[in-house]
Design goal:
Elements (H helix, E strand, L loop, with lengths): L5 E2 L8 E2 L1 E4 L5 H12 L3 E6 L2 H13 L4 E5 L7 H13 L4 E4 L14 H28 L3 E6 L2 H4 L6 H21 L4 E8 L5 H10 L3 H5 L9 H12 L10 E4 L7
Parallel strand pairs: 3-4, 3-6, 4-5, 6-7, 7-8, 8-9
Antiparallel strand pairs: 1-2
Helix pairs in contact: 1-9, 3-4, 4-6
InterPro entries: NAD(P)-bd_dom_sf (IPR036291), Sc_DH/Rdtase_CS (IPR020904), SDR_fam (IPR002347)
Length: 261
């Protein structure tokens, strides 16, 4: 299936590759999304806090014949989103797609939520989305338009006990997605979000260990299983493609949870 990741409207012969920026690309959803974009002919600019994992993904992308630039750093640092966007523009001269994907959860009841745990999650789950979008928007507009895909969560659509900070931040990501879409449609920029259920990743493994739960107990979704990272990545790549040109300002659940208690 061709996802039209070549911009046919450019003056360059045969169109230009679309340039895709992805955060938390070292593993899980980000890694699978990067590989799929690379297979479709995109140029990649990847961020992760884990430099070793980031290099491994870049090596895999190079075997696909795609160009890739890596920028290791904590995307929750307010300076890093702008630096990442700058690296993309320096390397490829444009940005067409931004996938704000970073996030993690810490288990805590509201009454026990510490300042540290609140701000630690806010800076990665919410602030990085806001600051990354703000930095990338002028360049996406200058490229003639494009798409921003935010990784939200079903926990942002309905709260889950023990995930107060994470749920609140992901809910804010969903509202921020809608506002970004409303404000920038006139510039040819779409903004959408995916809301995965429980996804089989190292991040989930660490969270389950912290609450003493198993994947089977935690999943609690309609399909009765964990979502695979590649299943979410397929949705992200499709949303960023021309096949989804009429879709903006919405959040797409992936493996909806049936029981959030």
């Amino acid at each position: 299936m061709s996802l039209s990741l070549v911009d046919a409207d450019t003056d360059a012969p045969g169109g230009e590759r679309r340039v895709v920026v992805i955060t938390a690309a070292g593993a899980g959803i980000g890694r699978e999304t990067a590989l799929r974009f690379a297979a479709q002919g995109a140029a990649l600019v990847l961020n992760d806090v884990d430099e070793v994992a980031l290099r491994a993904v870049a090596d895999d992308i190079k075997t696909l014949g795609a160009d890739v630039v890596t920028w290791a750093g904590d995307i929750g640092d307010p300076a890093v989103p702008g630096q990442l966007v700058g690296a993309a523009v320096d390397a490829f001269g444009r940005i067409d797609v931004l996938h704000n994907n970073a996030g993690f959860a810490r288990n805590s009841l509201v009454a026990d939520l510490t300042d540290h745990d609140w701000y630690a999650q806010q800076r990665v789950v919410l602030d990085a989305v806001v600051f990354g979008t703000r930095a990338a928007l002028p360049h996406i507009i200058a490229s003639g338009g494009g798409c921003i895909v935010n990784t939200a969560s079903i926990s942002g659509l309905a709260g889950r006990s023990g995930m107060s900070a994470y749920s609140a931040c992901k809910a804010a990501v969903i509202r921020f997605t809608e506002v970004t879409a409303l404000e920038n449609a006139r510039h040819g920029v779409r903004c959408v979000a995916v809301a995965p259920g429980a996804v089989r990743t190292a991040v989930l493994d660490r969270y389950l260990a912290s609450i003493g739960s198993t994947a089977e107990e935690f999943a609690g979704n309609i399909l009765g299983r964990l979502t695979e990272p590649g299943e979410v990545a397929d949705v992200v790549v499709w949303l960023a493609s021309d096949q989804a040109a009429a879709i903006t300002g919405v959040t797409i659940p992936v493996n909806q949870t049936a029981n959030r208690s």
